[in-house]
Amino acid sequence: MTEEMVSFRGMRVSADWPRRLRDAQLSTTCRRNGVEMGRVRYGDERHAWGAERRPCHDCAAARGEFHVPGCDVEECPACGGQMLGGCDCEWPDDEEEE
Per-residue pLDDT for the chain (98 aa), expressed as one digit of tens each? Predict the structure, then answer.
């Protein structure tokens, strides 16, 4: 069975992707190193990803929107590294919450 694909912001994405992006806007914080902090919006990252010219190449977020969880562009607000496995900050899954 093939997953249904749709055109969204100039990208081919799964049919549920627009909903996932909408849902991502409701999660405004993340927890890093035991501290809750605000997530970084697309276009506010330290690295220039071209937000002034196009949506995020990985998750189709528009400038000013939060990335979909798991996006390879989302920046860690604690260290500025790549949140998806590119930083050394501890994720809740990496340590047991007390």
Answer: 568 999 999 999 999 999 999 999 999 999 877 789 999 999 999 988 999 999 999 999 999 999 999 999 999 998 899 888 778 887 665 444 44
Q: How many domains does the chain have?
A: 1
Q: How far apart are CA 44 and CA 75, in angstroms?
A: 9
Sign of CA dihedral 36, 83, 51, 10: negative
- Nearest residue to 30 (alpha-carbon basis) of 22, 39, 20, 21: 39
In a domain, 90, yes or no: no
Residue 24 in contact with residue 18, Cβ under 8 Å? no
Q: Model pTM? A: 0.84
